[in-house]
Amino acid sequence: MHQKSLSELAAGLRAGEFTSEALTRHFLDRIERFDGELNSVVTVTADAALEAAREADRRIAAGDAGPLTGIPFLHKDIFCTDGVRTSCGSRMLDNFEAPYDATVTEKLRQAGAVMLGKTNMDEFAMGSSNETSFYGPVKNPWDTGRVPGGSSGGSAAAVAARLAPLATGTDTGGSIRQPAALCGITGIKPTYGRVSRYGMIAFASSLDQGGPFATSAADAALLLEAMSGFDPRDSTSIDRPVEDYSAALEQDLDGLVIGLPKEFFDDGLDARVRAVIDAAIEEYRRLGATVKEISLPNSGLSVPVYYVVAPAECSSNLSRMDGVRFGHRCEDPKDLDDLYTRSRGEGFGAEVKRRIMIGTYALSAGYYDAYYLKAQQIRRLIRDDFVKAFEEVDVIMGPTSPTTAFRLGEKSDDPVTMYLSDIYTIAVNLAGLPGMSIPAGLVDGLPVGLQLIGDYFAEGRLLNIAHQYQKVTDWHTRCPAGYE
Amino acid sequence: MEWEVVIGLEIHAQLATRSKIFSGASTAYGAEPNTQACAVDLGLPGVLPVLNEKVVELAARFGLATHSTVARRSVFARKNYFYPDLPKGYQISQFELPIVHDGYIDIDLDDDTTRRIGITRAHLEEDAGKSLHEDFHGATGIDLNRAGTPLLEIVSEPDMRSAKEAVAYMKKIHALVRYLEICDGNMQEGSFRCDANVSVRPKGQEEFGTRTEIKNINSFRFVERAINYEVERQIDVLEAGGEIVQETRLYDADRDETRSMRSKEEANDYRYFPDPDLLPVILDDDFIEAVRKTLPELPDAKRERFMTQYSLSHRDAVILTGSREMASYFELVVEASGGEGRLAANWVTGELSGLLNREGIEIDESPVSAEHLGGLLKRIADNTISGKIAKQVFEAMCRGEGDADTVIEQKGLKQITDSGAIEKLVREVLDNNPKQVEQYRGGQEKLLGFFVGQVMKATQGKANPGEVNKILKRLLSGD
Which residue of A176, A439, B79, B274 could cross-link A475, Cys pair, CB 3.0 to 4.6 Å? Predict the structure, then answer.
């Protein structure tokens, strides 16, 4: 059952071949069986899931079912869920139960999707390897000695191991695309403003965007459609109708113009990863696409710009974690300063503290112009590079990550090396564009992701381009050994 | 040495909206602690602010009424600092690009001159909650009902030169925000409060002295006292050869003094940056023109109109336009009196204001309605009663004994205007006082007042004084 596509699952449910309850039990059993080692799920909500499944079965029987009704999914533990702990991978929120649902949570509930639990993640989504979680690292099902990527590592690993057909993620600098690449699955970060951020715990507000994980583009399209839409509770949400992403999947790729930014194929790219990307581009040529070399001259500044903007925003966003109203509070505070310093000192991990300090510094009087303001100016140049590129090409392609999954602990002591693993994904967030990663091959038995970057609101086109590739290749159907 | 005082005010006016600036929670005053704080006000993880559009309109009204620029683009920024009653660890305010900037108002001084005070800017922001240090032994209670209440912070130029000017400015802004119906002006509930920046410099010196900021003053009287105290303190320090420390001070009304709260060295670095959760506020000309059309007649225009339409003095017109309620009360009195503008001005600024002051009440709580007062003035104007009797009637109306006509009727206070009746009375008075009559005729004309008094006494003041005078003079001249 766990190898079926969403449309097959939905058809099976409607035809009465199996119930949502049975489907839900099946995936709960897989989590029980495999997650002891993977550590991809931090909270399993079995009882609520079975209850939701039975409700979905009633809806299906009543003929009131949508494409996700009765379909199990895992929810990144950054989305607030009424009555279920939302930890954001942090000791700080280890005891936090939101009294409300995030907009995405609410939408998926209304769609009848069945939440199996909440997935592990880098603490407050700050990390590229899922090693900063308070709940311990997530293992990559392709090689449990390796990281799944981050920050949505739990969601990616779980879908790769077929512990759920779908999972949600968030992407601030590559946190959907990079783990999707490293785990050999499909993930899409939509245009900034497409998916509501309400109830999605903020890391860097101007960059954060939710999106789906699935094994295929066709499945991701269904989840993205359910997650998307204008939300009056999020001022940065965009009031624009959501496309029927599934309907656009079958468009052929004749005449498609692919841009290959030369900056994405530099010395930092592993040669064998490059070979996989080149082969994928060849596949697209066969599908009728033409290829053009382009330049994104300012993209080289993405990492430094990102590591000013994102920490600056997070230093402010995380101020509310102060031990006063919710979350971790230290024992017996002596006075107010003690309450703040110990609660935050104990509640936050090292990477979060590092970024809060960088951001606080960047925003300080006397440094603001040199760092934050400058970074915002360069951000605009990075965006302009893309706008110019999309005058000539329909889609930009390149590697998602410069390497395949690295070993646990390999980069965790060297933040700069770790930060550079997001070098190809970060510019997309800075520009607010949609970006996607699809599996395109294996190197030494480890997945390689092809990144697709689209123009604003071109999610439908990206999914279509990915789907056409997946129709003629089978990388997305590969399942790590032991999880078949 | 002669010193010059330099004062600038930052006024916080709570905008009169039903819900908060970034959430749907109610702004009503006086609810049980934390019953009007929703997830957004509590700053729970994941929540986002959404701007209450009403505040933009209210701020624009203020901008248009103060000759200011209403910014076509303004930006919300985060002011970052930790405090338990600041739920998010930052206050959403406006920093580099406020919604209103570069305007002025003219204030009216006691010597009937006016003075122009520049308005540097007025920006939108959210209020914090309240820390309750009493009733919680060894702990602090936090009430977040007020968190997220919309404020307009109005920052003046350092254009005021005395505490009196500062009070006049604050009163003018207070009147203005109430005219504009953008703030209820309730100072007890904290809807209107100010911080005063005060410095002194030797007269003639161009450069400003070091200033101190007195925080959170919530009455006109305290503003004057706090500034005067602070000015004296600064002069004392300087004259003793000391230096003023730039710092924040608190005014203690009980002791009538200011005390240091924190110095600049301990001051927070607020790390302002544009709030990425909110879009810039973009206003177009159509919006601004639509707001302009909703503006009521403003105090200065109303004052000019009162002066021409009712032939009032500048001073009376200033007093009568001091608040929207006062002005509308006055105009109702004029209407009810049949157009007696100056008489109405005299009574409203005289008897009525005296009464309100004595009772410590506002004009909208006046025991005498505008219609009743106008009715009384009508009877003065048509000579039914004299001004003196009118005061008796007024007092009766204060006690709730009905309108003027009822009181006059019941008490028989109607003026005697029948010249025959008055002449009869005058003759009686003259007959009874032959000695004085002789003295008068001998040249002591000031005795006329004595005769008038006698006639009035005989009629309990009801005789028409003009008529009495006329008849007295005729009879005394030897007819």
Answer: A439
Residue A363 belongs to some domain of the structure? no
- CB–CB of B273 and A368 under 8 A? yes
Catalytic residue IDs of A: 76, 151, 175
Which stretches of A221-361 are assigned E, i.e. beta strand? Answer: 257-261, 290-294
**Nearest chain A residue (CA) to B143:** A325
Which residue segments constitute the domains of chain B, with CATH numbers given?
Answer: 3-290 (no CATH), 297-411 (no CATH), 419-476 (1.10.10.410)
Residues (pLDDT < 50) of chain A are none
Residue A363 with chain B: CB contacts under 8 Å = 80, 271-273
Hey, which bits of A62-185 come out as E strands?
72-76, 114-119, 166-170
In angstroms, the CA A212 to CA A401 distance is 18
Q: What is the CATH number of the domain that holds A10?
A: 3.90.1300.10
Task: Tell me the chain A residues in contact with residue B84 when contact means C-beta distances shorter than 8 Å.
Answer: 322, 324, 336
* Matching residue, tokens 């701007």: B51
pLDDT value at residue B477: 80
Asked if A429 is an interface residue toward chain B (Cβ–Cβ < 8 A), one would say: no
Q: How far apart are CA B378 and CA B134, in angstroms?
A: 56
* Mean pLDDT in residue range B24-36: 93
Q: Is the ipTM of this complex over 0.90?
A: yes
Reduce the DSSP state of residue A150 to 3 states and report it.
coil
CA geometry: angle at A110 spanning A465 and A223, to 5°? 15
pLDDT in tens, A129-168: 999 999 999 999 999 999 999 999 999 999 999 999 999 9
A438 within a domain of the structure (yes/no): no
Q: Is A230 on the interface with B (CB under 8 A)?
A: no
What are the residues facing B234 on neighbouring strands?
Answer: none
Does B158 score more than 90 pLDDT? yes
pTM: 0.91
Size of interface A-B (CB pairs under 8 A): 100
